User: Fold glucan endo-1,3-beta-D-glucosidase from Cardamine amara subsp. amara.
Amino acid sequence: MFITMVGVLIIFSTGSGAEASIGVNYGTLANNLPPPHQVAKFLLHSTVINRIRLFDANPQILQAFAHTGVAVTVTVPNDQIPHLTNLSSAQQWISDHIQTHFPSTNIIRILVGNEVISTGNHLLIRTLVPAMQSLHTALVSASLHRRIQISTPHSLGILSNSTPPSSATFRLGYDTHVLKPLLSFLRTTSSPFVVNPYPFFGYSIETLDFALFRSNPGLFDQHSKLLYTNMFDAQLDSVYSAMNKLGFSDVEIVVGEIGWPSEGDIDQISVDVATAAEFNKNVVERVNSGAGTPLMPNRTFETYIFALFNENLKSGQTSERNFGLFRSDLTPIYDIGILRPSGRTLNPENNPRSPVRGSSEKRWCVTKSGAETVALQRNIDYVCGLGLDCGPITEGGLCFSPNTVEAHSAYAMNLYYQTMGKHEFDCDFDNTGEITAMDPSYGNCEYQA
Ligand SMILES: *[C@@H]1O[C@H](CO)[C@@H](O)[C@H](O)[C@H]1NC(C)=O
Ligand SMILES: *[C@@H]1O[C@H](CO)[C@@H](O)[C@H](O)[C@H]1NC(C)=O
Assistant:
C-alpha cells in the first residue's frame, strides 16, 4: 500500500521452542525517526525482532544492520522496474545495492516493486516479471541466487472475487498474463508469493469481530464446507484458492504487510490503541500457533506487521500515519509480545540509568557455554563495530591469547555490559551471554568491572 518504506521481520520464540516468523514494516516516511544504527541496536537488544525488510535499499540502513545477523529484505522501487528488464542494468543494481553490503548485511530477499498490479500502470505490470527474471539472472551470475530470493508483494486487489474463500480467482487478464508467469518463476526459484492482507481495509461494523479474531458466528463456505472464524484465514485461503486454480498450490505464501492503526479520524470506528494491540497480538498468536488455515492446515506464514514506527509525513487519513508499534523515541505504543522481558520497562537508549540492584558487588558478562561460534563472532563484530575499545583482543593486545572466538567474545561482551550500565539486558546478546560474580581476568588480561 505504500511505496517508499522500510520493513522489519521478527522471529518469536514460543514456549515450546518452535519458532515462527513475524515481520514488522519499518517505514521511513517521517522526519523524526531515530538514526538507523540506533534502530538496529534497539531491535537487537530490546526486542525479539531479528529480520528486517526495507521498502527500498537504503544504504545507511543496510550498513546499520551489518554484522547484526538480522535478516534483511530489500525492495526495488516501482519506478525502477522497466529499466531492470535490461540484464546489464540488473547486474549493476545487484552490484550497487546488494554486493556492496552482502554478506556483512544478511540480505535474504529482494522484492521487486510494491503492489504493482494495483497501480494499474501497464508499463510496470508488463515489465514486472521480466525485471524479476533479469535480477535473478544477475544473482546467478554473482552466485548469490541460493542465498537471496526474488519476489514481489500484492494487495488483495489481485482477486476478482474472494467470498467465500474457495470461490476466489485472480482478476481476469492478470491471471494468465502476469500471475501465471510470476508463479512459475517463484516455483522455479523456490521463492514465496507475497501478499498484503489487510482486514483493516475490509471490515464493516458487522464484521468487526470477525476481523479482530474475536468470538463471532464465523463464515461458512458452502463449497468447501469449511467454517472461517476470522478474516485473516479467509483472506489467505482466498489467495490459496486462486493460486490453486492456476495450478500453484505448492508455492509458499508470505504475508508482506498486515496491521491496524492506533489512532484515526473521529468517524473511524475501532481505531485506537487497544484495538490495534488486540489485532496485532492476535495475528502474532495466530501465525505462531502453527494451526494454519482451513485450506492450509498446519502451515506457518512468515508475516510482516505494518509498521515499526508511526510515520508523520504520510498523506491521507490520520490512521495512515499511525500504524506504528513504536514512537520515534523507541518507546512502545503498545506491546504485542515482541519486547525482551528486560526491555519492557527500560529502554537503554532513552531512559536515565537506574542503579542496578546489587551493583556494589562486582559483576562480569561472559559467554554462555554452548553458545554458537557464529553468534559469538556476531557479538564481537557488534561491540567492536560500535567503536568500543577492542584493542586488547586484537593481535598484540593483552587479551589476544587465547585466540578463540569464545574468549574474544567474552571480552567484548563484558566491555559492552560494563559500558552500557550493567543492566541484565546488556548481557543478553540473543541469549548467548551470562552474568557472573567470578572475575574472568587472567594473567595480564584484565576484564573491567
Ligand atoms: C542495456 O543497457 C545497456 C547500458 O545502458 C545498453 O548498452 C544496452 O544496449 C541495453 N540492452 C538492451 C537490450 O536494451
Ligand atoms: C495437522 O496437525 C494435526 C495435529 O498434529 C494432525 O492431526 C493433522 O493430521 C495435520 N494435518 C495435516 C493436513 O497435516
Observations:
- The CA atoms of residues 173 and 179 lie 9 Å apart.
- Confidence is low (pLDDT under 50) at residues 1-20, 343-359.
